[in-house]
Amino acid sequence: MGIFCSCLRMCCEESGEEQRFTNESSSSLIPTTVYRSNQGGPVDRVAAADVAAQAALKRILKDDKPQLTTTQKNIQMIAKRELEKERRRDDPAYRIKELGLEPAPAQTEVPESDFSPVILSVYFTCDFLGDNVARTKTELFDKLETYLKTQLETENGVISAIYMIYSLNHKQTKDMCIDTIGKYVSNILEHSDDPKYRKIKMSNKAFQERIAACRGGMAFLKAIGFEERQEAPEGDAEPEKFLVMSEGRAQNTSGLVNSLEALKKGQSVPIKLHRNLKIYKVDPSKRLQAPELPQDFFDLGPEELKKEQRLREEETDKLTSLRTQEMRSRDVLRKYRYKYTLIRVRTPDNFVIEGTFGVYESLDAVRQFVCPTLSSETITFQFKDPVANKVLSAEGKSLNDLGLAPKAIIHMTPSDSLPGPFLKKEHIAEAEML
Predict the structure, then answer these.
(1) Does residue 58 contact residue 306 with C-beta atoms inside 8 Å?
(2) What is residue 398's three-state secondary structure?
(3) 232 shares a domain with 290
(4) What is the residue range of 401's domain?
(5) Would residue 114 count as lying in a domain?
(6) Which of 56, 66, 287, 405 is most deeply buried (CB count within 10 A of its CB)?
(7) What string of DSSP letters covers 161-205?
């Protein structure tokens, strides 16, 4: 402030005025004019000095943020408009309307890229249960838990417990359980002769929160040698439940080390997206109506929508800065709003092959899905976008990159002029009218 006053005083003295300032807040920094008797026209000079002082004051007190160029301002305006579109799009009512989940007015023409039968859910399979067991993700993991529990009493008990820990719990719960078990086992390995390290009080808060709350945690401890017992603590207290490892099991250091290593390197049971193949026969004179996509198709829940909104707000600033190709690629991945997409392939003889795919899968995955349904292995074909009237090229692009999410109809165009039928007899026989 002292430097500011000195500079301002010099400016004012050149105009014929002296200015007095105090060290009060910026709102009180209004110059008080003292007129010199040997100078004329004080009113004009006072006005000029006041304007100069106010201008200097604004320059000193304003924010240090650099002024944006016209181009940057235009970019920010565009970004803000896009952000507002995203806000509206995140609104459930807007999103439902946009996705065609509500019936369109009778007078509105429905484009062919929309279709109508209700899709109940997305289904999955896993090798443990077999490809013929297709369930929703929740139902599949319930059946998987039941199966793994039946394996706990076998020689694969440790492995089954590890699969349970990794497959049936959230990451934070899983990590806490693994960390706690690691401490239990490490203490036993270091103090195998001390019984206090081979005993775990089951009512202990840490045990309840870190082990009992994790599906598979208790099963792992029992699989490596802990047994559940009732023991009375010192005094006349009531017996309590403990997990106790015998001295003999504690001496099996190699078994404990191997089990702990397996736990730390464990993996969840791989699950696979079930294509949920359906075959339809369509009336060539009618357009296909829009299906109702289940919530499973969308990547964002309520909390994820809030997070996505924050990411959108960050994009306003990002648009005004230079970014590497790698950084832009990571941002593009964030914009995927769907996990899955429903693809319908229409054959020249008016059948539709329907399947569910992940948005990151390629067009080749659709081809591999379609080929086994065809009447001959020699049929060669291309996929065509009926709206853009162009051939779809795979070339490393995902279904989302090709604009085929969360739903799309594409046409199968044979390379040769074939009369048909294009599908196997069993598929034609099971086709439903669409």
Answers:
(1) no
(2) strand
(3) no
(4) 278-433
(5) no
(6) 405
(7) HHHHHHHSS-HHHHHHHHHHHHHHHHHHHH-TT-GGGGEEETT-H
How big is the chain, counted in residues?
A: 434
158's tokens: 């440790």
Q: Return the structure tokens found at 354.
A: 């329907």
AA letter at 34 = V
Q: For residue 406, say if its preceding peptide bond is cis, omega within 30 degrees of 0.
A: yes
The pLDDT profile of the chain, 434 residues, written as one tens digit per residue, is 454 444 444 444 444 444 443 444 444 443 444 444 444 454 455 556 566 656 655 555 554 555 667 777 777 777 777 777 766 655 655 554 554 444 444 433 434 433 334 456 889 999 999 999 999 999 999 999 999 999 998 888 999 999 999 999 999 999 999 999 999 999 999 998 899 999 999 999 999 999 999 999 999 999 999 999 988 766 667 888 999 999 999 999 999 999 999 999 999 999 999 999 999 999 887 776 656 666 666 555 555 556 656 665 666 555 555 556 555 655 554 454 678 899 999 999 999 999 999 999 999 999 999 999 999 988 999 999 988 889 998 778 899 899 888 888 999 999 888 777 999 999 999 999 88
Cα separation, 198 vs 222, in Å, equals 12
Q: Which of these, 111, 103, 147, lies nearest to 126 by C-alpha position?
A: 147
Among 12, 38, 61, residue at a domain's last position: 61
Counting Cα atoms < 13 Å in the Cβ hemisphere of 55 gives 8
In the block, which residue shows the tokens 């020689």?
155
Output the six-digit token pair for 52: 């100069």
